[in-house]
Amino acid sequence: MTATTTHLWLREETKEHEHRVVLTPDACKKLLAERRTNADGHEEAVFRITVERSTQRIFDIHEYELAGCTIAAGGAWRDAPADAFILGLKELPENDTTPLKHRHVYFGHAYKNQAGWKDLLARFKRGGGQLLDLEFLNDEKGRRVAAFGYMAGFAGAAVGLDLWAHNQTNPGTPYPSIKPYENDEQLVSHLKKRIAQAVAGGANQPKAIVIGALGRCGTGACDLLVRAGIADANIIRWDMAETKNGGPFPQLLEYEILVNCIYLATPIPPFLTAETLLTPKSDKRHLSVVVDVSCDVTNPHNPLPFYSETTTFDAPVLAVAADRTSTPLDVVAIDHLPTLLPAESSTRFAQDLYATILQLAEVDTARVWTDVRKLFDTKSEGL
Ligand SMILES: NC(=O)c1ccc[n+]([C@@H]2O[C@H](COP(=O)([O-])OP(=O)(O)OC[C@H]3O[C@@H](n4cnc5c(N)ncnc54)[C@H](O)[C@@H]3O)[C@@H](O)[C@H]2O)c1
Predict the structure, then answer these.
(1) Residue 255 DSSP label
(2) Any catalytic annotation for residue 190?
(3) Which end of the chain is more exposed for a tag (fewer CB within 10 A), N or C?
């Protein structure tokens, strides 16, 4: 039997402010160069790739064209050949109920009873398509093959440092909205300038504590602090060992910046509560910036239960009325932090995903894909 080329179709993202992409031009170029010998003994391309135009994607459409991709209009995936895999990151356009006939690879947010999950899966069932969810692509050890955690921690720590510097140099003025950076160099040099200004104005370099420091987000947060020039002695790294006795931890008030990066898998006592912020020790509170990368605000075991709303790039900061001191206590809880650096976030994600995308050519037998296929079947059963 003659093997057929696998058709990947990169759709445009329609979610507001989403500049990231699941396949970079570099990844496309590499995929298009993949060759295999078919049953007739001839060499053939493993993939062909169609890329939709997009007004918000961080990479220009010409880069995809140069990589050898075919270009299509935004939203043209609806009429893509039936065997094409439709690749994206975030939600499909809202207010659409048409049946979905393709196999879609993206973050469907449909398997943890999220709003609208039944309607989405029912659309797949009606159209005969499948959701092959990016969030559930796991390796043999059950670890996600690709995730945005590193860049989330990196971006979260960056916003924390920038906010701290802002509060030193412009006390009492609101922290402005955040715009994405073209690359991490630009972000790091901006932060170095901001910290230098704060220090020139009389502030000491801040001490920052990262909880969950050994994980993906935590590693990214610590790396950013190092690159921004924070002295190693001023970066405090906590993980399971340091929190094993259970919170609250009033000693957290001694650090200027707290970055929470834990993966909350089981109930734990809180790290810091509204009451902790009122203890005598809090009179000497240094803590003025909390970045909650984990953003477990709706979880009953949220380890930072003194605030209850997430924040956004447009309004990044929530002021917490805290205690007797005049030091502000600002919380940043943005649940889409990697968007701060769309190019690096996309590049890292596409690199981590590469080997798994290669296996799409054997989608019916490759374990990583049959697992998500089974998950789809189970979750959509009976709809
Ligand atoms: N805000 C965003 O934009 C964004 C983006 C990606 C991920 N996240 C979230 O960040 C969280 C972490 O993700 P990750 O990929 O880094 O997870 P991970 O599993 O790679 O790392 C989590 C780390 O937390 C540590 N940890 C768990 N419980 C702890 C505790 N009680 N005390 C101290 N350390 C503890 C673990 O040992 C591990 O080192 C997740 O909740 C994820 O959903 C947020």
Answers:
(1) S
(2) no
(3) N
